[in-house]
Amino acid sequence: MAQCVEKERVCVTGAGGYVASWVVKFLLSNGYMVHGTVRDPCDEKKNGHLKKLKNATENLQLFKTDLLDYEGLCAAIAGCTGVLHVACPVPAVRDVPNPEAELLEPAITGTRNVLNACLNAKVKKVVVVSSVGAVMVNPNWPKDQAMDENCWTDGEHCKTLKLWYCLGKTLAESEALEYARRNELNLVTVCPSICIGPMLQSTVNASSLFLLHYLKDGKESVEDEDRIVVDVRDVADAILLAYEKPEAEGRYICSSHTVRSRALVEMLKGMYPNYNYPKSFTEVKQDAKISSEKLQNLGWKFRPLEETIVDAVKNYEESGLLGNE
Questions:
Q1: Buried b vs exposed e over 192-206: b needs ≥16 C-beta within 10 Å?
Q2: How far apart are CA 269 and CA 85, in angstroms?
Q3: Active site residue 7
Q4: Which CATH number belongs to the domain containing residue 239 in this structure?
Q5: Which of 10, 13, 97, 236 could form a disulfide with 87 if both were Cys (CB 3.0 to 4.6 A apart)?
Q6: DSSP-derived secondary structure for 38-94
Q7: Is residue 80 in a domain?
Q8: Which domain range does residue 235 map to?
Q9: What is the C-alpha to C-alpha distance for residues 60 and 25, in angstroms, rounded to an integer?
Q10: pLDDT of 99 above 50
């Protein structure tokens, strides 16, 4: 990543979250001034780790706001050259009691509020973090063709399957791109797959639970399905790359490895034999392919899966998340 010559000011929404924390860390280490939006700057459990980052004392300012607080967002974004919109609720369970209030409203109205505030502040560039959930739920995409940035999730299909997170991400991203086109706002979107790797924050996020469950739940049987994953640090790199590269435009899929559940567990067992792994696997036919070629052509590189797993498990062990097994 290029060294920032001047102390450019960048706002990161949802700064205390899993991906956003790494984005803040990388921005601070590259000499940026950072405005981070959080629900409560005084909540040490959720946001204390941000204040301990290198250069945070002099270059990080936390703003108390959320995605539905337009005035608060305007205050956080004022004076910033760029905005990295990372904040979005991610459910830990599939059955969400009130998807409209818990997922769709924050995702869609929240993104709209951020973009309006960006236009008001005349920011030069915006990166919106979407998800492969906005790409991959498309039953009409040719089976033998890798899904790329031209592939969009089918909203009606999401409603049928009750995939509310995917629906929210799809609607928010498509509206963001249309808003940018209409208002001549320089905006790029990044669509990561399941993010794994070490956490900076102390509270466990939804995508880390997926790897933790394999290590400690000891279920009798789990589905042997494709897991499309990417290192959280590589996602943070991709977001900064999309922000810093003038030629970046449109959408970018950000995914590095596709691995079956059984193969992932076998890899974990080989490295850490003493944890409580699933006992058996139920075969699930899947052949979805996804391409990050466009992002790689921009200069993005990613870590080997083994490195991600080693760093993640070390982090879980040090944080006491794996007990004494």
A1: bbbbbbbbbbeeebe
A2: 37
A3: no
A4: 3.40.50.720
A5: 13
A6: ES-TT-HHHHHHHHTSTTHHHHEEEEE--TT-HHHHHHHHTT-SEEEE------SSS
A7: yes
A8: 9-195+230-255+287-302
A9: 10
A10: yes
Q: Is there a domain that residue 277 lies in? A: no
Catalytic residue among 46, 169, 216, 279: 169
Q: How far apart are CA 293 and CA 300, in angstroms?
A: 9
Contact 9, 28 (CB under 8 A): no
Average pLDDT over residues 12-22: 97
Task: Please give the mean pLDDT across all residues of the chain.
Answer: 92
> Which helix (H) or strand (E) covers residue 120, if one does?
helix 105-121
Rounded (10°) angle between helices 206-216 and 305-318: 80
Amino acid at 202: S
Of 29-43, 182-196, 232-246, 276-290, least confident by mean pLDDT is 276-290
Burial 48-72, CB ≥16 within 10 A → b, else e? ebbeebebbeebbebbebbbebbeb
- Residue type for position 16: G
**Class of residue 314 by CB neighbours under 10 A (exposed 0-12, middle 13-18, buried 19+):** exposed
